[in-house]
């Protein structure tokens, strides 16, 4: 089914400016996550915390190619990166994580429920598999209203074992809806390795079984990711039919705060394995590629780091200075006006 | 007797019942190799092996159905939901299958299954991870519903649940897992269903609670005592079956009551409790029953809003004062 896609873009198709943008976006996400982690341990951020370190290419390689806010993005609780890539400011994200009135959900959602509909971001979802049934409706509406837009729906390898996922993929295949599925296949669902959670880890086979074409992608390299995404998006916009990318990736840190200590992760993976994947760090790869092409100098690398540091620090100052939501907002938003 | 934490008491109950009955087995997400999300099942995989401690995919419908089916043909599954908030997709297997098969079969099928896991509000886990859903299950004929408030009851009620021939909804409270207390180490010790406990005797007002509400009520009773108000605290232990005898006996003494739940106020279990008190002891009441409950909103994330949405001992004190004014 994969041969229905249009010709992949060649290396020349990406300009220096675009490559630098990819690098900048991925680094912003990495540095943001690192600072969020610090703030969590300073008790400025509560609840659960799921970081995207290592998986940056999955948002950087896709979301900038979208026509936001007309295209739509849905994702899991591991959603900070998606918000930032959709254009939600570091300030709005940090303020939400700190439960402030200036956050993107006015402090009501928190880390797992970042959302920014004005920018096409329909939010994170705390329920494993939860966004996939919703993606059917979003795709349906995009088709219904006669647009050429696409719903991009991210979810984890663990979510593939939810019943609702299979009902939904079948409906998307049946109704031929414009949804791009991004399986963030980081090999683990909490402590459960892929091989311990499914009798059939060939996810493309499962997508195909529902009439959806797809392919496996190396998600550790943002250029590869970007090419695959562009092919998939072109396919969807041309045919109106869904596409499924099983993206090979890895989370460098624990699932969440619960196994964020090394001991926690030792229950299910080895240090050596983590190290091996860290050698494929998407940031290392893009820096290498930028340097190879003579697109970046050491001074520029430092300047970008400094610029991002300012942005992240500013978001923290902004969030910490922001007020908590007013108490009388407790009963607001249960219903729309 | 030994001092242990609530979660250890749960583990001890499962260990003893697995040793007693080879048909008892444990299943759920991360219960084995990962040692349990909240460490409730820690060590059980090593002790009993992967035949009896089964790690499942993240498939709540499958978990509920697998446990129900296994129970229908003679096993005694103890199925963990990582939290009750994740059990909602499984409602059809639970309500339409587990809860009804005995009745629909004219009693020809037994369904001895326990569905257990943490419920209630954690800390800033926001709207999708903070549910107390006991009213949904208590509403459904065919389920027994147990909600232990102490380590000793965690053990004793879970053992009764595992030995019961019916589906039992066993709701723990994540906020109680770390609480400790004296627990019987006698493998024959159980706590029967349908027998409430008077946790503190009093004569002016009855505070009727379950799960985490009991500890809150005991704190409220201490505060009230400073004002010379003597509050009786009743721990229902199981919502189905419900021990109205103990409740009514308390009302006959105090003539006033506060009913307490953490879940949403509207159509919650406290409403059922209050109605039963009115039905059975209206003439005994000297004041309207007061209700303490969670706010009728999806749980907000922000600390200050979350605090405003969940009941505390101070809300119980205020409710008691209203009943006494
Ligand atoms: C229905 C449901 N069951 C269980 C959970 C608890 N839980 C949260 S994340 C997670 C693991 C999900 O793994 P995966 O889908 O691979 O995504 P990843 O975290 O690796 O990005 C689990 C079990 C949940 N949130 N929702
Ligand atoms: Mg995963």
Topology diagram in text:
The complex is a heterodimer of chains A (337) and B (325).
Chain A: H1 16-41, H2 56-60, E1 72-74, H3 80-86, H4 90-97, H5 131-144, E2 151-156, H6 163-175, E3 179-185, E4 188-189, E5 192-193, H7 203-209, E6 213-218, H8 222-239, E7 243-248, H9 262-266, H10 271-278, H11 282-292, H12 298-321
Parallel strand pairs in A: 1-2, 2-3, 3-7, 6-7
Antiparallel strand pairs in A: 4-5
Chain B: E1 2-5, H1 6-20, E2 24-28, H2 44-48, E3 53-55, H3 60-72, E4 76-80, H4 91-98, H5 101-104, E5 114-119, H6 134-138, E6 144-146, H7 151-163, E7 168-173, E8 180-183, E9 197-200, E10 205-209, H8 212-226, E11 231-235, E12 238-240, H9 244-254, E13 257-264, H10 269-281, E14 290-294, H11 303-309, H12 313-324
Helix pairs in contact in B: 1-7, 3-4, 8-12, 9-10
The complex binds thiamine diphosphate (TPP) and magnesium ion.
Provide structural commentary.
The complex is a heterodimer of chains A (337) and B (325). The N and C termini of chain A lie far apart (46 Å). Chain A has helices at residues 16-41, 56-60, 80-86, 90-97, 131-144, 163-175, 203-209, 222-239, 262-266, 271-278, 282-292, 298-321; strands at residues 72-74, 151-156, 179-185, 188-189, 192-193, 213-218, 243-248. Chain A has one domain: Rossmann fold. Chain A has 12 helices and 7 strands. In chain A, the strands form 2 sheets. Chain A has a 5-stranded parallel sheet with strand order 1-2-3-7-6, sandwiched between helices. In chain A, strand 2 (151-156), helix 6 and strand 3 (179-185) form a beta-alpha-beta unit. By secondary structure, chain A is α/β, with parallel strands linked by helices. Helix content of chain A is 43%, strand content 9%. Chain B is built from 12 helices and 14 strands. In chain B, the strands form 3 sheets. A 7-stranded mixed sheet of chain B has the order 3-2-4-5-7-6-12, sandwiched between helices. A 5-stranded mixed sheet of chain B has the order 9-11-10-13-14, sandwiched between helices. In chain B, helix 10 (269-281) links the parallel strand 13 (257-264) and strand 14. Chain A binds chain B through residues 46-48, 96, 99-100, 105, 107-113, 125-130, 158-159, 161-164, 189-192, 196-198, 258, 267-268, 324-325, 327, 329-331, 334, and chain B through 29-30, 33-35, 37, 55, 57-62, 86, 89, 122-129, 295-298, 300-305, 308-309. The complex binds thiamine diphosphate and magnesium ion. Thiamine diphosphate (TPP) sits between chains A (76, 78, 126-128, 156-159, 184, 186, 188-190, 255) and B (29, 58, 60, 82, 86). Residues 156-158, 186, 188-189 of chain A line the site of magnesium ion.
């Amino acid at each position: 089914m994969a041969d229905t896609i249009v010709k992949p873009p060649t290396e020349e198709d990406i300009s220096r400016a675009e490559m630098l943008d990819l690098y900048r976006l991925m680094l912003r996400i990495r540095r943001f996550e690192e600072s969020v982690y610090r703030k969590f341990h300073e008790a400025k951020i509560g609840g659960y915390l799921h970081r995207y370190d290592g998986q940056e290419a999955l948002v950087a390689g896709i979301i900038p190619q979208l026509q936001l806010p007309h295209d739509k993005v849905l994702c899991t609780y591991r959603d900070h990166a998606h918000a930032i890539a959709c254009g939600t400011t570091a300030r709005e994200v940090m303020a939400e994580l700190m439960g402030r009135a200036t956050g993107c959900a006015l402090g009501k959602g928190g880390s797992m429920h970042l959302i920014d509909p004005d920018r096409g971001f329909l939010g994170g979802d705390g329920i494993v598999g939860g966004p996939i049934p919703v993606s059917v409706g979003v795709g349906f509406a995009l088709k219904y209203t006669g647009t050429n837009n696409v719903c991009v729906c991210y979810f984890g390898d663990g979510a593939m074992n939810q019943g609702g996922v299979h009902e939904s993929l079948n409906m998307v295949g049946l109704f031929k809806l414009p949804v791009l599925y991004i399986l963030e296949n980081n090999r683990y669902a909490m402590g459960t390795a892929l091989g311990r959670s499914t009798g059939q880890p060939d996810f493309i086979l499962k997508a195909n079984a529902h009439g959806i074409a797809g392919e496996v992608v190396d998600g550790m390299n943002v250029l590869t990711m970007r090419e695959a995404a562009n092919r998939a998006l072109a396919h969807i916009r041309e045919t109106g039919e869904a596409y499924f990318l099983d993206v090979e990736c890895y989370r460098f840190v624990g699932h969440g705060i619960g196994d964020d200590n090394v001991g926690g992760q030792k229950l299910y993976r080895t240090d050596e394995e983590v190290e091996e994947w860290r050698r494929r760090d998407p940031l290392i790869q893009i820096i290498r590629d930028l340097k190879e092409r003579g697109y970046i100098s050491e001074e520029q690398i430092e300047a970008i780091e400094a610029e991002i540091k300012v942005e992240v620090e500013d978001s923290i100052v902004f969030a910490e200075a922001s007020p908590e939501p007013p108490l009388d907002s407790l009963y607001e938003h249960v219903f729309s006006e | 007797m030994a001092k242990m934490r609530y979660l250890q008491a749960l583990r001890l109950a499962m260990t003893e019942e697995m040793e007693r009955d080879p048909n008892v087995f444990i299943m759920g997400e991360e219960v084995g190799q990962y040692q349990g999300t909240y460490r409730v099942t820690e060590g059980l995989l090593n002790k009993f092996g992967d035949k009896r401690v089964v790690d499942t995919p993240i498939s709540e419908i499958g978990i509920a159905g697998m446990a129900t089916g296994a129970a229908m043909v003679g096993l005694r599954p103890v199925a963990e939901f990582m939290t009750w908030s994740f059990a909602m997709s499984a409602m059809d297997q639970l309500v339409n299958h587990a809860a009804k098969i005995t009745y629909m079969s004219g009693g020809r099928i037994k369904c001895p299954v326990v569905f257990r896991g943490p419920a209630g509000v954690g800390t800033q886990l926001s709207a999708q991870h903070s549910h107390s859903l006991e009213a949904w299950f208590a509403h459904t004929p065919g389920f027994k519903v147990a909600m232990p408030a102490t380590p000793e009851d965690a053990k004793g009620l879970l053992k009764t649940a595992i030995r019961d021939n019916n589906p039992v909804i066993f709701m723990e409270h994540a906020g109680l897992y770390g609480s400790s207390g004296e627990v019987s180490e006698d493998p024959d010790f159980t706590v029967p269903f349908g027998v409430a406990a008077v946790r503190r005797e009093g004569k002016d007002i009855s505070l009727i609670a379950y799960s985490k509400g009991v500890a809150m009520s005991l704190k409220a009773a201490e505060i009230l005592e400073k004002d010379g108000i003597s509050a009786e605290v009743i721990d229902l232990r199981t919502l189905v079956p419900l021990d109205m005898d103990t409740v009514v006996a308390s009302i006959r003494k105090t003539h006033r009551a506060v009913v307490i739940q953490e879940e949403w106020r509207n159509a919650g279990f406290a409403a059922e409790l209050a109605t039963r008190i009115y039905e059975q002891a209206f003439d005994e009441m000297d004041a309207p029953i007061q209700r303490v409950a969670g706010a009728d909103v999806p749980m907000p994330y922000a600390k200050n809003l979350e605090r405003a949405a969940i009941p505390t001992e101070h809300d119980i004190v205020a409710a008691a004062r209203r009943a006494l004014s």
